[in-house]
Amino acid sequence: MNTQTSPGPCAVRVVLPPHLRTLAQVGREVEVHVQGPPTQRTVLDALEARYPMLRGTIRDHTTLRRRAFIRFYACEQDLSHEPPDAPLPTEVATGTEPLLVVGAMAGG
């Protein structure tokens, strides 16, 4: 997994789960623009700025930590437990691959 280190702005593709697509009234994939190396934090900040109705749905309002039943994937890797300021893979930064926001399933 390569990471982006360029300080320039980039467009990041984000795929949302169905319930968040419905809430934001968007299609399967959205594009957000981030300044500098894209990280989970900068992408989610841009996503919440563009779609304010998503605030608090992916991460906690107060702590900004990922909600327990949300996972992040890119380039076939689970990024959910990566630090929020760790650079995302280069493929995400260049728009080749999207950042997937996945609603985890629970039950029995």
Automatic annotation (TrEMBL):
CDD domains: Ubl_MoaD_like. It comes from the Bacteria. InterPro entries: Beta-grasp_dom_sf. Gene3D superfamilies: 3.10.20.30. This is MoaD/ThiS family protein. It comes from Thermocatellispora tengchongensis.
